[in-house]
Amino acid sequence: MAKNTRTRIIEKAFRLIAENGYEGTSMNLLAGECAVSKGVLYHYFNSKEDLLIKVMEHHWANMTLKDIYDVQKTTKAGFRKKLIANGKRYIRFLRKKPGIKRFTLAIMPVIARKKNLMEKMRPVLEAGFASTRDAIEHGINTGAIPAATDRKLLLQEIFMIVDAIEFYSAFEMGMDLEKIWEDLIKKLF
């Protein structure tokens, strides 16, 4: 039962933050939406910032960036093709989930303003980096990515592309994000 309550709180917090922003989602509002006391919220989460981190961990783990980089069983010939196909699948996923877009836009300014929150977020971000780093290593090991490639720079480039796609997917500006993803990956290696 405790796990169900915790998960329910996380899912309601995600929806409320997407709808009202981080500052507009008070612990009182969340408690009311979940039909629990504020004490119950603080039983599961040390603070509102802790709750935000847990919401991000939960939803990013379920979305999951590692799906983009699920290339471990590919050969040199199939690596780039699979990476492009997985990225396109992720972009379609983002289009179908407007709550993710709204949530991301709601939390970006908060994270930018609160340096301590960014430090607390580092492990969540590192988890994303780990799956990307593993994919890059696999690409190098299979010969799909040249061995002389600067791994750190390639990691940062791919992450910046994914971040930009997530950001611009929220604006529905008529961009062909799938084509952009494909072209940029082809240019990287």
Structure description:
The chain has 189 residues and is an all-alpha fold. 77% of the residues lie in helices and 0% in strands. It has nine helices and no strands. It has helices at 2-20, 27-34, 38-44, 48-63, 76-96, 98-113, 115-142, 151-169, 177-188. α1 (2-20) crosses α6 (98-113) and α4 (48-63) packs parallel to α7 (115-142). The longest helix is centred in the C-terminal third of the chain and has 28 residues, at 115-142. It is elongated, with a radius of gyration of 18 Å. The mean pLDDT is 87.
Counted beta strands: 0
Helical percentage: over 70%
Counted by DSSP, the helix tally is 9
If you average the pLDDT, what whole number results? Answer: 87
- Which term fits the overall shape? elongated
Largest sheet: none
Order of helices and strands: HHHHHHHHH
- Structural class of the helix and strand makeup? mainly alpha
How far the N terminus sits from the C terminus, by CA atoms, comes to: 48 Å
Oligomer: single chain
Integer-rounded radius of gyration: 18 Å
Sheet-strand content, in percent, reads: under 5%
Q: Which spans of ≥5 residues are poorly predicted at pLDDT below 50?
A: none
